[in-house]
Design brief:
By secondary structure, the protein is α+β, with helices and mostly antiparallel strands. It contains 19 helices and 14 strands. The strands form 4 sheets. Strands 6, 7, 8, 10 and 12 form a 5-stranded antiparallel sheet that branches. A 4-stranded antiparallel sheet has the order 11-9-13-14, with no helix packed on it. β13 and β14 form a beta hairpin. It is elongated and about 115 Å long.
């Protein structure tokens, strides 16, 4: 039994045992305890109910809008760009070839994709160590598409108070009309998002008309439907629950944080004790801090936390609370910055806000930055020095050696030629290593290899019997290649070793 229940039972027993005269006297009750600010926060976002954040306006809100527009321009628009008569960015998984503007990567170039992923990972770690979870607040797909859904909510249903009122209202024609309009807009956004996603892996200019004509491939249609549904599920249905309960990044971000990491912080010394007051009230006379306990910082938070309780892993660094608090401070005539980007060390008075830049070159930042720089340099050097043409000479083991109609010894080979560039290339070949050796089976103009394609070409090498004794003899293939349309003087060479079997 709890202490409160025991106290209530004791009071009840005393009242029953007391005389009637005494029972008529009013019982003494303890004065009600003042409600804690946290209780109002709980009332703002009841547990188990959808969070309806209030629309925030300010410098960080404008920055967040710019980030959403920039990321979605890349996602929605880039696949429609053309580059050298093909889609500018295309990850052709069935053909195992990736095109990124002028860069063409095949299966042999997976090392560059690995380096690119390393750059993304260490770039995120490095940036998080410096400035916290800005990736989550401005560029994370979950945040971006949730923000888009909130734009639709505000457009159709209105701001937070109107949405809450609509949720509590009974179902009627007006409510059905509003909900249907919002559902239609959300469906259009999610469907087009799924179609665009599939367009990164198949030619989008062909996929879109084929989709509406019912002639699109099953794999692409599944990718579009799956990504569209997941956009609807995570961004509209789940929303803040993904950040609160599913995101792994929130769990290990503490490994990158330190006392010099920029985080969104509430200045407790300045804000406490908090309390409501009139705009004309003198805070010095009331003995209160700058926080008026308006809970606006909670109402605009997309994850529903109270930043005044200190940094929590649920904070995604969107800075909506800073915009809301700055607006309130302006109305009250108080200086801005009650909630601001700062460091733990500043709040502990180890140094001032002006000295934050001096703490950037600390060991953790330098470590992540060094690995990031090494990965960037490795990727740049690798791409700059890589050969766009790869040729493998494969000896035909089915027929080791045979005599042709001209009385020459003949060995058969298969040339595997991969063009990793974004332009068609022409390949010619010569062979050396034995006297009077020559190659046959090559087209007179050379082998034409389209951009990003793998071509196999069978060829034969002939040698007079007197120059090829029984056994294996080392030979050398010399391949010369150039871009289609280039003069023959601008050629490059590749040499490949092989063997010739004599008898």
């Amino acid at each position: 039994m709890s202490t409160e229940n025991q106290a209530e039972n004791a009071v009840s027993e005393e009242k029953n045992a007391a005389p009637k005269e005494q029972s008529e006297k009013p019982a003494k009750t303890a004065p009600p305890k003042p409600s804690k600010p946290k209780s109002s926060v709980i009332q703002i976002h009841p547990e188990g109910e959808r969070i309806h954040p209030k629309k925030a306006e300010g410098r960080f809100a404008k920055l967040r809008i710019a980030a959403v527009l920039a990321t979605q321009f890349v996602f929605y628009v880039i696949p429609w760009f053309n580059w050298s008569d093909r889609q500018a960015v295309l990850f052709n998984i069935p053909d195992r070839h990736f095109f990124i503007f002028g860069l063409s990567l095949g299966m042999g170039d997976l090392i560059y994709l690995a380096l690119l992923l390393m750059i993304c990972a260490f770039g995120l770690f490095w940036w998080t160590t410096i400035a916290g979870r800005l990736w989550c607040g401005y560029s994370c797909p979950q945040t971006v598409y949730t923000e888009i859904m909130l734009w639709i909510d505000n457009l159709v249903e209105g701001d937070r108070n109107k949405r809450l009122k609509l949720e509590k209202s009974p179902w009627n024609f007006t409510k059905i009309r509003i909900k249907a309009t919002k559902a239609l807009l959300i469906f259009i956004v999610c469907a087009w998002t799924g179609i665009t996603f599939a367009g990164w892996f198949v030619p989008i200019r062909q996929f879109v008309p084929d989709l509406f004509a019912g002639a699109a491939g099953g794999g692409a249609m599944f990718a579009a439907a799956f990504y569209g549904f997941m956009t609807f599920f995570f961004a509209h249905v789940m929303r803040e629950k993904v950040c609160l309960h599913m995101c792994p990044y929130a769990r290990f971000q503490s490994a990158m944080f330190d006392k010099d990491t920029l985080i969104i912080s509430y200045d407790t010394e300045r804000g406490e004790p908090r309390g409501a007051r009139k705009k004309t009230a003198n805070k010095e006379d009331s003995g209160l801090g700058d926080c008026i306990n308006c809970t606006m910082c909670v109402q605009v938070c997309p994850t529903g936390i109270d930043i005044r309780d200190g940094l929590q892993y649920q904070c995604i660094g969107c800075a909506a609370c800073i915009d809301a608090c700055d607006e309130v401070m302006d109305k009250m005539g108080y200086p801005r910055g009650l909630i601001r980007y700062t460091t733990e060390a500043v709040l502990k008075h180890e140094y001032t806000d002006q000295d934050i830049k001096k703490r950037l070159l600390r060991p953790k930042v330098v470590g992540y930055g060094g690995v990031l720089l090494a990965a960037v340099i490795g990727l740049a050097v690798g791409i700059a020095t890589r050969q766009t043409m790869q040729i493998d000479v494969i000896k035909d083991r089915g027929v080791m050696v045979r005599e042709n109609t001209q009385g020459l010894l003949e060995n058969s080979y298969n040339l595997s030629i991969s063009n990793a560039s974004d332009k068609t290339q022409i390949v010619t070949a010569e062979v050396s290593g034995l006297e009077d050796i020559h190659i046959t089976g090559m087209p007179p103009q050379g082998i034409v290899v389209p951009a990003g394609q793998l071509v196999s070409a069978p060829v034969q090498v002939n040698v007079p019997p007197e120059y090829a004794e029984k056994g294996s003899h080392p030979i050398m293939f010399t391949f010369r290649y150039r871009y289609e349309g280039q003069p023959e003087t601008e050629v490059r060479e590749i040499k490949e070793k092989s063997i010739f079997i004599g008898e």
